[in-house]
Every structure is written in C-alpha cells, then in structure tokens.
Amino acid sequence: MFDELKNSWKKQEGNNMPSVEEISKLIKGNGSRMFMMNVLTIFLLLFAVLVLFMIKYFIPFPNPITEYAIVAIIIVIIIASAYLFNLTRSFPQNMDESKDVKRYIKDWIEYQEQIKKYSNLFIPFYISAITIAISIYMWDFTADNNLVRIIVYSLTLGWIGYAWFVLGPKSQKGIDQKIDDIIDGYKRIGEQLK
Amino acid sequence: MDFNGIYQQYNQQIYRLCLGYTNEEAWAKDIAQDTFISVWKNLEKFRGDAEVRTWIYRIAVNNCIKQLGKRRRTRTAEIPERVLEQKEVNPRLLLLRKYISELPELDRLIISMELEELPQAEIAEVLNLSPGNVRVKIHRIKETLSKKFKMQNHV
Description:
The complex is a heterodimer of chains A (194) and B (155). With 194 residues, chain A is mainly alpha-helical.
C-alpha cells in the first residue's frame, strides 16, 4: 500500500514556488527591513529624548527636583523598552536553523523562558515607574489644593490602580499562558525525539 | 556550492516535507521558502560534515518545529476545501495526508521523509536519532496509518 502511495506522494508539487531570484530579493528585503527597524528604533529613542527636553523647557514645574525625577524615570523606561525590544527581535533572527534538532528545541525553550521572565519583570516595573512618575507630577500640581485638579488626579490614580490590580495581572496571565503553550509544544516534540 | 542547483533539486522535496507537517499548501510553501532563505544564509558555513541533503532536511525540520511559535492557519487535521475540489488528486493520497496530520509532530516529519524515500540512516542523521529507533518509529507509524485506512474501508 505504501509503495503505491509513495508514488502519489512524490507527484505532489507546489505551484508558484518562488524562483531563486525571488528568494534572493526576499533575503535582501529582510536585510533592509532589519536595517530600517534599527534606524526606526534609533529615531524613536532620539524622538523620546527630544520630547523629554521639550518637557523640561516648555512645561514649568513648580519644583525642579520633580522634573528631573520624572525625566529620569522616563529615560529608564525607554532604555528598558529598547533592551526588551532588541532581545525579542534579535534572537530569532540570529538563530541557526542548521543546528542539531534537540539543541534547536532546547534553545527555543530557553528563549521563550527568557521572554516570560523578562515580561514578568518588565510589565510590573513599567507600571510602577509610570505610577511613580505620574504621582510625583500630580503631587507637585495639587500642592495648591485646587479641587478640580485633586478630583482629576484621584480618578487617574484610580485608573492606575485598576490597571495594576486588574488589567495588568489579566494581561500577564494571557501572555504567560501563550508562552507556556509554546514551551509545552517544544517539550512535547523533545519527548518524541527520545 | 551552488544555491541555484540546490534549490532546483530540493525545493519540491522540502515543500512535500512541509506539506506533510502542516497539511496546508500555502503554509507549507512559506516554510519551504523560509528553509531556503536559511540555506542561502548558512551555505558559506556548511562544512560538508554531512550530505547536503541531510543538512537541508535538518534546516527544514527545524523550520517546521519553529512553527509552534507562530499562528496556525488551519487545524492540521482538516483537509482544506480547495484541495478536496481538486478532482485529479488521488483520494487515497488526500486521506493519507489527513491521517498524517493527525500524528504527533515528529511522526509527521518522519513519515514524510520515508515517503520521500530517504534512507532510514539519513532520517536518523537528520533527527539525531539512532537508525534502530527510526526503524521502530517508521514501523509504528505505518501500522497506525494502515489501521486508519482499514477503518475507513469498513465505514
């Protein structure tokens, strides 16, 4: 039975397979896309620095120490985001597909575990840093006891609390579940290789 | 080593391996394409420790496994409707593809290579398994597939 099926199997042909020229174009396209992504990342970092300078010079803060604290926190967030972005992007790009299958699976598991670890560290860090920055800002601007400002900032804090205690854990759970499913899949294939 | 020659010789074989893994033509084509992009990038690093074919198949297998982290376009156990519409395709072949898609991931790859008539020693080398292990696995897979065909005949 299988001999007959082997013949049919080998008659299957993929239509419209890309030509060598198209493959070459795709590789060049990938290269230039990577270059553009790097340029874009640098541009966005520079833009963020520009915005920080604009905050510093165009928004009058009652207390200059507050201003420096906010700018410092935002810089830390930007650096952490850029690092995480680079980590998640560069590893799959640099993965050697020709390596031993077991080693390849092990590397992907390690990568996914690393992504999970960083996302678990980064999201609480990000929300904490933003909360501190906004709280410092609000503390300064509510110093004059303006009722409207106090209400607006109370609502903002309420929203941050909701994001921290409800939205954040829910979103993290979803991300963790997705990563765990992928890791389980790799482990399952690894088991099949025994 | 000439990429053009490699591509002409192996692109359909690799496509069929990916088709055995995904049972989805467009997806298989994408994985085959990614495989040859990897081949192109790594060709200079290829030291000739293994046969070119073994090396390419290993890249293809790794690319198939990598799909775990990507979205699934269709459930693998389904035969896409447009395939069913192709009346010239052998219905037993379509059934075979369906039954293969119901196997565990590694078995799908092993049986696809067996159907491509790769020597069992080479399949073992691609997957870094012992030839004896591959022989046993192929025997079990064929048994499973035969049972499925028999059950289909009884329905």
